[in-house]
Amino acid sequence: MGDIFTTIYNFLSGLLVGWGASPIVADAIIAFLAAAVLATCVLLILIFNIWLERKVLGRIQDRIGPNRVGPYGIFQTVADLLKLLTKEIIIPSGADLVPFFLAPIIMVASVILVWAVIPFTAKTIGTDVNIGVLYLAAVGSLGIMAVLLAGWSSNNKYALLGAFRAVAMLVSYEVPMILMLMMPVLITGSMRMGEIAAAQPIWYAFSMPLAAVIFLIAMTAEVGRSPFDLLEAESEIVAGYQTEYSGFAFAMFYAAEWAHAFTMAALIATLFLGGWRGPGAEQYPTLGFIYFIIKTYAVYFLSIWSRGTLPRIRIDQVMSFCWKFLIPLSLILIVLTTLADKIAQTVLMERFPDYMSTASLVDMLPRASILLAVNLVVGALAVWWIALLGRRERQRQEVAISHLAPVEVGTATK
Prior knowledge:
This protein is mainly alpha-helical. About 70% of the residues lie in helices and about 0% in strands. The longest helix has about 40 residues, at about 360-400. The relative contact order is 0.11.
């Protein structure tokens, strides 16, 4: 049974061919229209997402949230958008105009381009390229370039320093993110996003929970949300790389940040939660789209929850956490998981020759159990490692305090 997207495609294709267009031209027109509609929907859904996040944050922090403009404040985001559209774009003296205005465009484009390879249903995906995961890594790097362009072209030392710090953090957290991005690829044996989603009768979040958690942490840092919101640490660097931006130029950075958070949720839903998979999704693809939206908003709620509860940490702590903990843990996990999966495949294929040709829930249970065991063992070692480092740090501080000489009240020190 076809889904709603296939029905729309068949209708438009028949209409264009009926008007005299060749099938190739009709497919090109439909592809262009689909890309335009997808980009528009990603940006328009931000109006709802921003309102939703403000209301959820209000409940988490015991506040009311938007409640004046429209019923329940639903038009507050529209009012903010109109305000930003009417504000003047102030260009600082000495700014390099081309990269200055190119940076927000690249930032938005880097987020929207990700949606081209995300499967919405079993049969609907923008372009199911055979290097979909590599495409994600390449497109994600455009956002880093936009940050650097914004800080460098603003002719502002605060913006430049903020861009340097942001780029250092983003590049650092791309390492564990890409390592964990390879986990579904190695287990599935494909870089196609559609095949990764289809190969999860048991979600990878259940068979590889530690990999999913590391990927979530790294993606949160990429988005720049709490506790990694150091890209805009206004108490330290005014407003970061976008200090000199105003009006609609600032609105584009603002929209890119919120769209990036929602895109992150869609990626995690696809890579670790089975994407469109669910009861009846293969027979009724439209139902798969509903499953995909539910999973995406579930992950998005987790990002809102972390933003509303976790405090910002220092930049040195952010970098140390990445290079001294996340990256070694990711390397250990990917090596052990791949080794255990290969051994499991060899043993299972000896006993069940057609094992790899099936993808049912029962057939995947032994393999998923082995992957889960590896993740739990590595996770337990990681917790022990953190506890050991914390104990050593407390002992170091106690020794430092005990060696402090008492100072008499009233005495002057030189």
